[in-house]
Amino acid sequence: MWIYEKKLEYPVKIKTCNPKMAKYVITQYGGPDGELGASVRYLSQRFSMPTEEAKSILNDIGTEELAHLEMVGAIVFQLLKGVPPKVLEREGLGAYYADHDHAVYPMSAGGVPFSAAALQSKGDPVADLTENLAAEQKARATYENLINLSDDPDVIDPLRFLREREIVHFQRFGEALRIVEERLGEKKCHFVKKAE
Amino acid sequence: MEMTREKMLMEIMAVDFTLIDLNLYLDTHPYEQKTITHYNNCIQKAKILHENYEQMYGPLTPMSYSKCPWQWIESPWPWEKEAF
Amino acid sequence: MYMNRAYGISAMQYPLPVCPVNPKLAHAYVPYQYLKCLYPPMAGLKAGTIFPELDRPYGTDPEYTVDE
Q1: Is residue C66 part of a domain?
Q2: Which domain does C23 fall in, by range?
Q3: pTM across the whole model
Q4: What is this model's ipTM?
Q5: Which end of chain B, N or C, is less packed with Cβ atoms under 10 Å?
Q6: pLDDT digit string, tens, across residues A40-87
Q7: CA A45 – CA A55 distance, rounded (Å)
Q8: Number of structural domains, chain C?
Q9: C41 contact residues in B (CB cutoff 8 A)
């Protein structure tokens, strides 16, 4: 289960509002390669993983992704806070404002609501861990795109942190895959014929 | 007073982050005694920092003592600009 | 027909080699990390990791392209 700690993993303190940037950053909240997808993916895959190392790394990285989800939500929230509706409309967030006011809603930069179609929990440890390696690279690439889109250091700083975390997660999933392959490689596989 | 709270919270973030990164490392390196010893030392440091902060500024988790009125609901919440 | 995999802790040899001794085709391998040293806590937080060898800021790896 989860206990909530009343602090962010890394500080988010944005002095200047920027609805246009919020429109892009939201993709790491509810987009295909975002933190919500990552946490649900890993926390779902952990149930069927063999080996304690793999179960725990999925559990712990899945938990950290929830903390990242919170950070991204905080970035979007602070970028939008206090911005008048007419300005939101001018910056391209008219439709978002109509449906969500200044709230944070899980969707992609293109406006597609969050979907589990972007993730898989295959039950095959090698497939799942390999998918996770890809997921971390996609997230890293997205953070790089967001960094390219911004020139506000208050925004770039937490994005930079989140990008680096993806690299570390990639390393850990890679190690988990090595361990799982090592374990699975040791065992003899038994083919069991189903009764007709 | 606000500066001190911000400074204390930053220190806690830093030690807690060390613990998070070490936690992930140890999940795939479970037999490294020296690293586990270092982890335990950081836990001790984190406990003290958490306790000191909570005494002055209220709970960081719901698993803490509270005065009346219920301190857990106090602002600022971490996503607010005033939190730092 | 289904494969019955056995789970649980077996007599594994830690630490794993950095790269596998006999890599198999059609398998992906990530090098196993060997701990060298750690950043102090505040530096680690700012960098996004406490491990200097995993500290890869945006722009240091040419394979991760930097758009002009």
Answers
A1: no
A2: 12-60
A3: 0.92
A4: 0.94
A5: N
A6: 999 999 999 988 999 999 999 999 999 999 999 999 999 999 999 999
A7: 8
A8: 1
A9: 11, 14-15, 17-18, 42
* C44 within some domain: yes
d(CA A8, CA B42): 19
DSSP structure class, residue B82: G
Q: How many CA atoms lie within 13 A of B17 on its CB side?
A: 30
Taking an 8 Å cut-off on Cβ atoms, the answer to whether C50 and B22 are in contact is: yes
CA distances from C47 to A158, A163, A196 (A): 11, 10, 59
Q: Is A16 within 8 Å of chain B by CB? A: no
DSSP string, C22-56: SPPTT----PPP-------HHHHHHHT-S-GGG--
Angle (CA) A46-A187-C33 rounded to 5° is 60
CATH of A19-186, one of 3.40.630.30, 1.20.1260.10, 3.40.50.720, 2.40.30.20: 1.20.1260.10
Is there a contact between B22 and B52 (Cβ–Cβ < 8 Å)? no
Is C51 within the bounds of a domain? yes
Residue of B nearest to C43 (CA): B14
B-to-C residue pairs, Cβ atoms closer than 8 angstroms: 39
Question: Which partners does chain A have (≥3 C-beta pairs < 8 Å)?
Answer: B, C
